[in-house]
Amino acid sequence: MARPSAQLTPEVLDGLLARLDAGDTAREVLKPLTKHYLGQLARKAPGRSVEVRVPPFAAVQCIEGATHTRGTPPAVVETDALTWIDLARGRLAWADATVQASGERSDLSAHLPL
User: Is residue 77 very low, low, confident or very high in pLDDT (cuts 50, 70, 90)?
Assistant: First the structure.
């Protein structure tokens, strides 16, 4: 399980977002952006009751509540990198996103955008 990663510097973040907005969806663009925004979520909503997965790049646990130590957590959210980045940036509403979400507290709308 990934821990919240170090945040990207504003210059690096701006550069990666500019590349993404220009249509560049290369791994070297998506991976750091995905980890950046997952890290922001974990810091904004600390806890271990929800596992947010963005394969193949990263996953974090967040949101206070029931915790788990092994196996499947009480709530899981999974989506692709482009959807996650759009949610984090506020370019996509939770209700309009294609995500697999199950379990209590798996609605992340109160925590988005980041």
Answer: very high
Q: Could you list the residue range(s) of the whole structural domain that residue 106 is in? A: 10-111
Strand order in the sheet with 100-102: 58-62, 50-54, 75-78, 100-102
Residue 109 is encoded by which pair of tokens?
Answer: 């709308």
CATH number, domain with residue 71: 3.30.1050.40
pTM (2 d.p.):
0.91
Cβ atoms within 10 Å of 96's Cβ, excluding its own: 9
Q: Where do the DSSP E strands lie in 1-114?
A: 50-54, 58-62, 75-78, 100-102
Residue 57 is assigned to a structural domain of this protein:
yes
Summarize pLDDT for 39-53 with one digit per residue, the tens.
999 999 998 889 999
